[in-house]
Each structure stands twice: as structure tokens, then as C-alpha cells.
Description:
Layout: E1 4-7, H1 9-17, H2 22-28, E2 33-35, H3 37-44, H4 49-54, E3 58-60, H5 65-71, H6 75-78, H7 82-93, E4 97-100, H8 104-112, E5 117-118, H9 120-129, H10 135-149, H11 155-162
Parallel strand pairs: 1-4, 2-3, 4-5
Helix pairs in contact: 1-10, 3-7, 9-11
Amino acid sequence: MSVVVILDSDFLSAFLKIEQMPLIRSLYQVETVAAPPAVYREVALTSLLASLTALTWVKVVAPSVTQLEALATDESFRRLGAGEQEAIALAIAQKPTVLLGNDNQARRVATKLGVDVVNIPAFLLACKQARLVDRQTLAALIADLRAKDFLGFRQADLDLLMG
């Protein structure tokens, strides 16, 4: 049984901006990835809509209303945005899953609820370890993420990635 890969808005938009969505499929060796409706809507409201709709392998998958209602009893869950809530609910319902998201608060809540969450630095490190990217390509990806998504990297993460 292969893992279900679920995208949160920040991760999806970052990889659309740098035109590196295929890396996700390559790393996890999946045919499709899932994005909850709220995530798809958030990204569709940006200039990335054409890039997103061109990726027929990004499937919109909705979590159950029952799952969302059950999670809404958690105060920290209720404070998250709709996309983050739907992504976490979907990840809980679909096992085994990995949630790709970069928001620290959402990652803490998801982890507390038993969801495996991978942020962008960890994803890039996994790509390096799987030999999907070399050091030069990794440096270019980091530069693109900084320039096109204004993503900051902690020095410890950069040392790990570039070391």
C-alpha cells in the first residue's frame, strides 16, 4: 500500500512558483497527490491557477464533515485556516499519509493529532538523500524558494541541506 500525499497551501504554492511539483511524485513514487478543496481554492485565487490546473495529477479530495466536526473540538485545530484544517482532517482519515506543509503552527497541531508532516527543508533533505537532486540543484531550489516564495531557511537547515 502506497502512501497518500496531501498538500497544504503553503507547500503547494511554493512548489508551483518554482515549477518543481514533479519532485513530490518522484520522492514519494505516487501517481497522484491530494489537495483538499480549501487548499485548491486558496491557490486558485492566485496567479498560480493556470499552473495548478495543468497538473491533472493533483486531485481534489474532501475530508468528511464528520471528521472536521470531530476535530473542531480541539481549540488549537479551530485556530487554523480552512486549508490547514481540511488537510489535517484528510490526513487523519487516509492512512498511511504524509502531509506536506510548512506552517509551524499547523505542523504542531497535525503532529499532536498523529499526522506525519514534512516541511520544505525536510522534503528537500529527503530529495537529496534519495539522490533526486544534487548539491548544485539543491542550491538552485533554495535560491528559487527564497526569490519566488520569500521563504527563509534557518542556518541549521541550510547547513544540513548543503553539507
